[in-house]
Amino acid sequence: MTTPQEPDGRPYYAEPPVAGVPYAEPPAAQPYQQYAPPAYPPPPGYGQQPPYPYPYPYPYPPARSTNGMAIASMVLGILWVYWIGSILALIFGYLALNEIRRSKQAGEGMAIAGIVLGWIGVGVLAIVLLMVATRGFR
């Protein structure tokens, strides 16, 4: 099916594309013109050296050292080596907590973790000994 055409070859529209305006050719393209921004005077102080930056207000605080007994307490609490490690984790953990509070060292969380794991190991040891003792007397 073909669309009807005007005598000059353009398509015929029952109604113009825009109400009341006949079909018109698009305007010819304008040649490219480069944009030139308007000339403004430079701001005051332009071209001068900036002022010196402010120094840092305070130096970084020195890094705190981690208590070695706190590390040992946590490691022994994890390993527990036949419940000897649990008992040593308790001893090192409590000694580390006292030393950390006295000297403001880091590692309080590791010491507490070692103490908790040490008490869990001692509790398991008590349950195992209780089971062995009750089974042995039957």
UniProtKB/TrEMBL annotation:
Q: Tell me if Secreted is a UniProt keyword of this record.
A: no
Q: Does the keyword Chaperone apply?
A: no
Segments for region (Disordered): 1-34
Query: What are the DUF4190 domain coordinates in residue numbering?
Result: 69-127
Span-the-membrane segments of this chain are 69-97, 109-133
At the top level, the lineage of the source is: Bacteria
Key words of the record: Membrane, Transmembrane, Transmembrane helix
Q: Which InterPro entries match?
A: DUF4190
Q: What is this protein called?
A: DUF4190 domain-containing protein
